[in-house]
Amino acid sequence: MAFKVPFVDPRAHYARLKAEIDQAIIGCLTNGDLINRHQLKDFERHLAHFVGVRYAVGVNSGYHALYFSLLAAGVGPGDEVITVAHTFVATVSAIIHCGAVPILIEVGEDYNMAVDRIEQAITHKTKALLPVHLNGRLCDMSILMEIAERHGLVVIEDAAQSLGATFDGRGAGSFGLTGCFSFYPFKVLGGFGDGGAITTNDERVARMATLLRYNGEDRETGEYHYHGQTALLDNVQAAVLDVKLSHLPEWLAHRRRIAQLYREGLAGVGDLQLPHYDESRRHDIYQNYVVRSARRDRLRTFLRDRGVETLVHWPKPMWEHQALGLGKPNLPWTERLCREVVSLPMSAETTTEQVSVTVACIREFFSVDR
Ligand SMILES: Cc1ncc(COP(=O)(O)O)c(C=O)c1O
């Protein structure tokens, strides 16, 4: 179905950047710059600068950024890692693939790890905290880092959804041992396929990730240091991402304007809860504009019938996917979010007209008791 207001618009996005993107791709192909060339190194340097750290290491997905970060932190069998269930499954799968046990705790009103629940989840097996900066907004990193320090825990930030967001002026991915980013096409910095990166100030971690992504090989000496994986960020992808990174600040500003329009149009409408929290400390970049309503499913159908595309992240709690074998934690709030959240159209291409259409439809829905 062709939507009048699409959730995202990759064709419009490419059309806008066509000249620059084509030049970057053709440059790589013409020069044979396919694997680990200067385009990747340039992108890593620019990304590290943008995040505010010393190193960035490009990998082929956000999942691999998480997995390699956990390995570099020494997480392994017998360890516990505290994280949330209200996240993309990759966060938890990365912990499982290290042989460790994910301890799932509640999120707060803002969908991020409830920092007041962390300490009661810590045991003698806890090795790391893995907060997820969801929807473009950081977790309360001052409290979280203080708890981690007091208990001697490593912090790995899942910043897949928060490139460019800050807490107390510091960038997502610059607080913990590492920050883990995803360049899945519909992230704020999206490639034309999968991609990811680890950011860190730790030289050892940067080197380990650099080796792990290349089957453990040191490309200078040819020596293999680990049983690694084939997980390098493609050079062509890096060239595209480098072009897009230079535009990111203007796109993030655009997202914030769109969020503000939603806020003005939807404040006080029905039982809708809008995603605006503690803006004195947080700079949100609105990867997703997530609203909540007890009538979410009927609202979505109503919008779909009027040509407005929405998404739900995520419609059922992760532990209800039986094959994942996660057991059933007692997380009533997370369960409720699965019933109530809906993400409205939001991208660098979302127009003010599209917001007006979406807002008008939502107001119409709530104007009568459906
Ligand atoms: C919160 C979160 N963590 C991890 C990931 C994994 O990233 P990727 O899809 O690049 O492996 C994503 C991507 O969707 C995500 O949103």
List the helices and strands and how they pair.
Elements: H1 10-31, H2 38-51, E1 55-59, H3 62-72, E2 80-84, H4 89-97, E3 101-105, H5 118-121, E4 126-129, H6 141-151, E5 154-158, E6 166-167, E7 170-171, E8 178-182, E9 196-200, H7 203-212, H8 235-266, E10 282-283, E11 289-292, H9 296-305, H10 332-340, E12 341-344, H11 352-367
Parallel strand pairs: 2-3, 2-4, 4-5, 5-8
Antiparallel strand pairs: 1-9, 6-7, 6-10, 8-9, 11-12
This protein binds pyridoxal-5'-phosphate (PLP).
Structural description of this entry:
Helices cover 40% and strands 13% of the residues. The chain is an alpha/beta fold. The longest helix is centred in the C-terminal third of the chain and has 32 residues, at 235-266. Helix 2 packs parallel to helix 8 (235-266) and helix 8 (235-266) crosses helix 11 (352-367). Helix 4 links the parallel strand 2 and strand 3. The strands form three sheets. It has a seven-stranded mixed sheet with strand order 1-9-8-5-4-2-3, sandwiched between helices. Strands 7-6-10 form a three-stranded antiparallel sheet, with no helix packed on it. A two-stranded antiparallel sheet has the order 11-12. Pyridoxal-5'-phosphate binds at residues 61-63, 87-88, 90-91, 132, 158, 160-161, 182, 184, 194, 196. Residues 61-63, 87-88, 90-91, 132, 158, 160-161, 182, 184, 194, 196 line the site of pyridoxal-5'-phosphate.
Mean pLDDT: 97
Largest sheet: 7 strands, mixed
C-alpha Rg (nearest Å): 21 Å
Q: Which small-molecule species are bound to the chains here? A: pyridoxal-5'-phosphate
The count of β-strands is 12
Percentage of residues in strands: 5-15%
Helix content: 40-55%
State the order of secondary-structure elements, H for helix, E for strand: HHEHEHEHEHEEEEEHHEEHHEH
Class of secondary structure makeup: alpha/beta
Gross morphology? globular
> Are there runs of 5+ residues with pLDDT below 50, and where?
none
Oligomer: single chain
List the total number of helices.
Answer: 11
Strand order of the largest sheet: 1-9-8-5-4-2-3
Q: Distance N terminus to C terminus?
A: 24 Å
